[in-house]
Amino acid sequence: MTVHWDRVTVPLELPEVIDEIDYQRVVMNSGATWDYFPGHFDPDYAHAQGHPTIFVNTMHLAGFADRVATGWAGPTSRVVRRKMTLAGSVYAGDTMVGRGRVIAKRCDTSVEPARYLLDLRIEVTNQRGELCCPVELTLQLAAAEPRC
Amino acid sequence: MDGRSTLAFGSYADALRMVGKTSEPRTAGTVVSAARIQLFAALIHDGNASYWDADFARRSWGGLLAPPALLMGWLIPPPWLPTGEPRVASIALRVPLPGTTFINAANDAEFLLPIVEGDRLTVVEEVVSVSPEKRTRLGVGHFVETLDTVSRQDRAVVARNRNTLFRFTPHATPMTRAGDDAERSDEEERRQ
Q1: Beta strand B101-111 with B157-170: parallel, antiparallel or unpaired?
Q2: Is domain A5-141 given the CATH code 3.10.129.10 in the classification?
Q3: How many CB pairs under 8 A join A and B?
Q4: What is the model's pTM?
Q5: Chain A within 8 Å of B153 (Cβ-Cβ)?
Q6: Where are the domains of chain B?
Q7: In sequence order, which ranges of chain B are alpha helices (DSSP H)?
Q8: Which of A50, B4, B119, B183 could form a disulfide with B170 if both were Cys (CB 3.0 to 4.6 A apart)?
Q9: Residues A89-144: pLDDT tens digits?
Q10: What is the pLDDT of residues B121-147, one digit of tens each?
Q11: CATH of region B3-191
């Protein structure tokens, strides 16, 4: 499915995305991103640093936020900006819940050709409803009838 | 692996001397590859055709699209090198401070151009700021803000990545899961 910029009405709630994070998924962080900080694969190290167990890295949280956005908008959309705060960690055994909302729609004419943009707010919470990662994200989309 | 092994140690005054410093350009050892794009997409459970469908991606982007979230991953050296040389740590970890470990606190990335399979990326890192000592629920430490400018083989800048990590020494008593909002409270305090 492809969402066209000119057919989006604001505000708009995106479909909720739920993802259960088991130990394998957290260990995959290091394999997939080459981020071998031991807090992502060594429970003893994580414990010694004050964490209950290993936790996902920033790239995983960013990827989940991007999935919430582009999973809705379709593969012709592209993330052009993402601002996120790591407010709380997502640990092995947790469930990530992503909720997104389109809050603004704009046409960027400072570049040629113009860019058709949507501003989103996404919240990544855990299964207890605790906010782990608030995200501001801008998506570039295609327009069915390109016109600002 | 010990998390301390890549860290530089020193005082806050030492750290402040690095503010404004930039690194030499560092080029990734390998190009952006389909295998790593798809391993990352598998980690995220992201079925986006731009990562999996080579024909669609070629028509849309000129090749399989690198997930924007993997930006930092392309510039991390592999976990072992045959030459035995130590891995080059990011400039944020080379800021000399007392903290024995770190955790990421915030990230703000701008993706100016699509990064696709076959691109070879180069990064220049800059230390933007180091905060005074902060006490959080995780421990006592400093926030280190850095700016990465990432370009590809034709020198076009493809992304800018502003990152803030908390370099700290943990408290003696581990926290509970529910208490894990240290970075949030301190980040909010820092912005005020």
Answers
A1: antiparallel
A2: yes
A3: 164
A4: 0.92
A5: no
A6: 3-191
A7: 12-16, 34-44, 49-52, 54-61, 182-191
A8: A50
A9: 999 999 999 999 999 999 999 998 899 999 999 999 999 999 999 999 999 998 88
A10: 999 999 999 999 999 988 999 999 999
A11: 3.10.129.10
